[in-house]
Amino acid sequence: MGFLTWILLGLVVGILAKWIMPGKDGGGFFMTILLGIGGAFVGGYLSTLLGFGDVTGFNLNSLVIATLGALLVLFIYNKMRA
């Protein structure tokens, strides 16, 4: 995937993760993108490691994997800030 695709996927996944797990964490728009991109990497790494698939592009499978990774990253981020 290209750099711009990672940013776009990170934006979408970050917004989805924030919508699924709302909270009073700060950071705004750019932090949401960064957490989404980080979540895409984490989700892709863990799902590849466990044999579930990987993040290959902007498709439904990659979106689900990246969203689960972003939820994990957002959960850890919220626990570290509290």
TrEMBL record:
The chain crosses the membrane at residues 27-46, 58-77. It is found in: Cell membrane. InterPro entries: Transgly_assoc. The keyword Transmembrane applies. One of its GO terms (cellular component) is plasma membrane. Keywords: Cell membrane, Membrane, Transmembrane, Transmembrane helix. Belongs to the UPF0410 family. This is GlsB/YeaQ/YmgE family stress response membrane protein. It comes from Ferrimonas aestuarii.
